[in-house]
UniProtKB/TrEMBL annotation, chain A:
Lineage summary: Bacteria, Pseudomonadati, Pseudomonadota, Alphaproteobacteria, Sphingomonadales
Protein name (database record): Molybdate transport system ATP-binding protein
Organism for this UniProt entry: Sphingomonas abaci
Domain ABC transporter stretches: 1-231
PANTHER family named in the record: ABC TRANSPORTER I FAMILY MEMBER 10
Keywords associated with the record: ATP-binding, Nucleotide-binding
UniProt GO MF annotations: ATP binding; ATP hydrolysis activity
Pfam families: ABC_tran
Automatic annotation (TrEMBL), chain B:
Primary localization class, coarse: membrane
Family stated for the protein in its record: Belongs to the binding-protein-dependent transport system permease family. CysTW subfamily.
Entries under PANTHER family matching the protein: MOLYBDENUM TRANSPORT SYSTEM PERMEASE PROTEIN MODB
Protein name stated in the entry: Molybdenum transport system permease
Taxonomic placement: Bacteria, Pseudomonadati, Pseudomonadota, Alphaproteobacteria, Sphingomonadales
Organism of derivation: Sphingomonas abaci
Amino acid sequence: MRVLAERRLGDFRLSVAFAGPEDGATILFGPSGAGKSATLAVVAGLAQAERALVAIGDRVLTDTATGRCVPPERRRIGIVHQDARLFPHMSVARNLTYGQRRAGGRDRIAAEAVVDVLAIRSLLDRAPRDLSGGERQRVALGRAMLSQPDLLLLDEPLSALDAARRGEVMTFVLALKRRFALPMLYVTHSVEEARTLGDHCVLLDAGQVTAQGTPADLLPAPTRLGEVVAPGVVLIAGQRIAVPGLDAPVGTALRLEK
Amino acid sequence: MLLTPEEGQALLLSLRIAGWATFWGMIAATGFAWLLARHRFPGRVLLDALLHAPLILPPVVIGFVLLMLFGAQGPIGQWLDAHWGVRLAFTPAGAALAAGVSAFPLMLRAVRQAIEAVDPRLEEAARSLGAGPWDRAVTIVLPLALPGLVAGGVIGFAAALGEFGAVITFAANIPGETQTLPLAIYSALQVPGEEGAALRLSLLSFAAALAGLLLSEVLLRHGRRRAGR
């Protein structure tokens, strides 16, 4: 996967170039306003750039030098956002197969396998409004996978979930990655997510790539600060401290995150 | 309430004319609503105003404009007659045209609001899943806009059913041809001692509009259940 994007958005100047492994997860890491979303829009074909090159394997999707720009519906890029964007007038099953039915007969990723890996068999007949946040994200992941994408684009897919659900959904993302060997581009500002999933990491700041490498090298493990030992009670440096309004479950580790 | 043959005829004719006016009006309204809701182009505001003109013009002026355009001497009327052998002025089809044009802005507004209310992010999701523009329109936007489309159809139907000025100007008042319920009521009122007939016809048009409203309510509930709201 190769990405180059130069875009001007008002005062903001985006100028990024990076390459990621063809099977494995590339993390796009940076604070909000670093240019992650602007980069994603170029990769997805939803935004024009003054200069851009997007290629997955030998498929060139955008190349401003030759004027090539494949429209989003033919890019074969599955996208999962923080809000699941499930179609409210369709059952879970019909949501799942929406992209599959439009994949032109490509069927490397089988519906049965995806349903099993994501453990959503019992949800198939339900309506999206009857699902929990975590379940919705799992269905959105399945729907994107079944569109038989060449690249799975994940735009902060866990950030709308609470801490407990985040770990759960991450487990499923990892399971998909292991089972289907598919390049992923994963946008996040969480060190933990980057270190758990990433094979390659691209650090973005103020529209520029500041470093590339393995997540372990670029992003030091968060320092462990303490732990939740009872509802609303935290143990830090041997002291029990009451934290009113803290709803993290018992056992949650507290870390310093930048 | 048993109907006389004349009343039955006027009722059926009214329903047929209002039905066709709504059918073609909704197709045009959906097309234009899409254009106005989803596209930016030069002259958009002007087109918007022009499409709303029937709402502010006196109905008799609508009928007169239609006569000038679609009448036997009008440019479109002559073309239709020469190429298709179709005459609109003073025919049931013409009555439907006049009623449909008068009711058009109401349908346009309802459909446009319904289309604008569909979350564009859902369409974007469908797009990334391989759905082209028509595919997205048919599988995402129109089903989600369905309650609004039904509402637009009902209000259009009610307005077309009640249209008087444009119909009588463009299609005249021919019993069995273009004499819809409002026109029949008007004719009855012209004859001394026919107030009873006028009252019966008025109740009839009230019942027809009410039936349409109830039907739409049923359709709407069904649609809401499907849309998950």
